[in-house]
Amino acid sequence: MSLLVPAIAAITTAAVVLASPVGADPDPFVPDRNAD
Question: Where does the secretion signal sit in this chain (predicted)?
Fold first, then answer.
């Protein structure tokens, strides 16, 4: 059961990063999924 904790943490972190707003785009001048 304890092995699920780091997996859940990694998935949650990835979800937060993918859900970041356009303002959090590390390089907004590069065309990507974060359209202006």
Answer: 1-19
The b-or-e profile of 4-15 (16+ CB within 10 A means b, else e) is eeeeeeeeeeee
Phi/psi at 4 (5° precision): -75, -25
Q: 27 — phi, psi (to 5°)?
A: -140, 80
For residue range 4-32, list pLDDT tens digits in order.
998 988 888 887 776 666 555 566 566 65
**Amino acid identity for residue 19 in this structure:** A
pTM, 2 dp:
0.42
The encoded tokens of residue 7 equal 């997996």
